[in-house]
Amino acid sequence: MRTPLLVIFLLLFHFSSFGAVILQYHHVSDTSPKSTSITPKQFAVHLKYLQENSFNVVPLSQIINNIKNQQPLKDKTVAITFDDAYIDVLTQAKPLLDEYNYPFTIYVNPSIINRNDSKKDSHYLSWAQLKALGDKGVIIANHGFEHDSLTRIIDNLSQQQWLEHQTTLLLKAETIIKEKTGQSWHYLAYPYGEYNPEIQSWVKENSFIGFSQQSGAVGLSSDLTSISRFPVSMPYDKISALRDKLNSLPFKITLQGEQAKTIFEFKKAKSITFNIETDDFYKSGLHCYISGLGKQKIDWQGDRRFTIYFSGDLPIGRVRCNCTAASISKPGRYYWYSKPWFILKESGDWYHL
């Protein structure tokens, strides 16, 4: 009797060490802004790579349900997502996805869809088109009522008043999506990827799952208020970059207290301390890079904790710290974790989007 139980345990341990990768796209077009686009030709290359390398492309809900229920994630699992519900998802992306029978998710802003619903030559999908896609298995999810940052408090509101205002809008968006498509997943992709601990608490309290825009694989220990997605629009659309992302493993890293903050005024953030629970790598092989600053020196405090003292001031705007380390047990694979910051101007004002 012991042998089968041991085998089951080892299998669970084996699969739980793997994770999944969620890809984030916007436009699939030759004519839209490059920073939010991949060409149809290159998108086809992505899909072909997934198939030829035996990646398991699944609905986003399958990954989230596995994390919720702590069920092992099969290796090489991938989900495909699109933000903003542009029309080219239907006209350019879907025919290519259909060739491989790959499922996908579209995050929508109901107010924007409403304003463009009856316009000819709209750049956005209509509710009728979204409903038809949903009826064929596409997940339609929440990207905010408008495409407004959830962290940028306006009209001199307090933090509590702002959260109450956003609660009204986000729940309204979820209601409209359900009315128009019949779907209500309570998935929320943060507009511009901007969030903070207060928004994360709101997401948890209202039974939403929050999706960000920082890089990294997801695993059973991933925080359901900040599920990472790899942006793969230009200039990050090259196969060499995609290959590294698809083969990444989830880094089990946690942040406590002030370390979890995401918003700082310029020159106010000086360091960050990570708590790490993964030991399948050599400490000397851990490398962390900060956008605008480059590779950072790592100061270890024991085997489970390390600090980065920033080599300079975090630049104004959206900043990422990417930490990677080669796996010992899975040669050629890398653990990958990303921490985002949103650095305000020295005056405390927000940077331009």
Describe the protein's architecture and organization.
The N and C termini lie far apart (61 Å). Strands 1, 4, 5, 6, 7 and 10 form a six-stranded parallel β-sheet that branches. Strands 11, 13, 15, 16, 19 and 20 form a six-stranded mixed β-sheet that branches. The protein has a four-stranded antiparallel β-sheet with strand order 12-14-18-17, with no helix packed on it. It has two domains: 2-248, Glycoside hydrolase/deacetylase (TIM Barrel, Alpha-Beta Barrel), CATH 3.20.20; 257-344, Immunoglobulins (Immunoglobulin-like, Sandwich), CATH 2.60.40. Residues 5-16 have low confidence and may be disordered. With 353 residues, it is of the alpha/beta class. The chain has helices at 2-16, 40-52, 60-68, 88-100, 110-116, 127-135, 159-181, 197-205, 239-246, and strands at residues 20-25, 27-28, 37-38, 56-57, 77-83, 105-108, 139-142, 187-189, 209-211, 230-231, 248-250, 253-254, 263-265, 271-276, 287-290, 294-296, 298-300, 305-309, 317-326, 334-344. It is globular, with a radius of gyration of 20 Å. Strand 8, helix 8 (197-205) and strand 9 (209-211) form a beta-alpha-beta unit. The chain is 30% helix and 24% strand.
